[in-house]
Design goal:
- By secondary structure, this protein is of the alpha/beta class.
- The chain has 11 helices and 9 strands.
- The longest helix has 25 residues.
Length: 287
């Protein structure tokens, strides 16, 4: 029996036209829609497309690398006396408040003080001194990874996933780690330079990871279907909301609460043991 078939180029063009029409419809509804639930559905559908490449997006600090690279660089600069005369003492005091667990937000207070110390010293910081310190930190910390995320990155890379990294750390740090572990694209915080100095202007990547991930999805023609997102803090929740396989890894309290509400998978790595937790009846059980 003879079956008529369209030429491959024609069938491709028809499929492409239908695909673009679908995207146009969703974009119009997204722009004109007023209800939050409708807009979120459109965003998910816009990138939930067959035939497009899957991706895995990772936070870096505290997710792949066991410590905060941003913190490590600022702490090293302070110890070198490059952030002012009292920077080292201010950071030590803030760190002790956190280590003593004086209150639930002590770590975030420490982070805020660390950022304030760094950014207030930016106009007097030499880019050459900063770059040299970044190189030291990368050499020291690049191998200090969590086993779970390191192995997950390697597995997903082998399976053909496009690897993305979005981190609030300096883009110089993120670039070095991303290249070390075979990421395909990445976004970090940008501190503007001019004539070998820092101007004080900055774009902090962790403030809006949803927007950054959306830009990467559009750039690489990716789909959220069967894709992964892995992060450890509340700022990563926006990424986890966008994919089929969200993983809250060693989550802070706010991310854990969000994960529990959404029924996301939770993974905890402690010493040499990995605990994989799956949601069940409003709680978690070991997988």
């Amino acid at each position: 029996m003879y079956t008529a078939r369209l030429p491959q180029t024609v069938s491709f063009r028809i499929a492409y036209f239908l695909h673009r029409s679908h995207i146009l419809f969703l974009t119009i509804v997204l722009l004109l829609g007023t209800k939050t639930t409708a807009r979120r559905w459109c965003v998910s559908q816009l990138y939930y497309t067959e035939g497009m490449q899957k991706f895995a997006v990772f936070d870096i600090d505290g997710t792949l690398i066991r410590w905060q690279l941003y913190h490590a660089v600022v702490d090293r600069l302070a110890k070198k006396g490059l952030l002012g005369t009292d920077a080292k003492e201010r950071l030590q005091a803030a760190r002790m408040h956190w280590k003593l667990r004086e209150h639930p937000d002590a770590f975030h207070d420490y982070e805020r003080e660390l950022i304030a110390v760094y950014e207030s010293a930016l106009p007097s910081l030499s880019a050459v001194d900063f770059d040299a310190t970044v190189a030291e930190i990368i050499h020291e910390y690049k191998g200090q990874t969590y086993t779970y995320t390191r192995d997950l990155i390697a597995r997903l890379k082998a399976e053909g996933y496009l690897l993305l990294a979005i981190s609030g750390s300096h883009e110089e740090l993120v670039k070095a780690i991303a290249e070390e572990y075979g990421f395909d694209d990445w976004i970090g915080s940008k501190y503007q330079r001019k004539d070998g100095r820092f101007t004080g202007r900055a774009e902090i990547a962790s403030f809006d990871k949803r927007t950054h991930l959306t830009a990467l999805i559009e750039k690489h023609q990716l789909t959220t279907k069967d894709s992964y997102a892995v992060g450890d803090s509340q700022s990563d929740a926006a990424m986890l909301e966008m994919v089929d396989h969200p993983i809250a890894f060693n989550p802070d309290q706010k991310l854990f609460t969000r994960a529990k509400q959404a029924g996301w998978r939770v993974v905890v790595e402690r010493k040499n043991v990995i605990y994989e937790l799956e949601p069940r009846d409003g709680s978690y059980v070991l997988a």
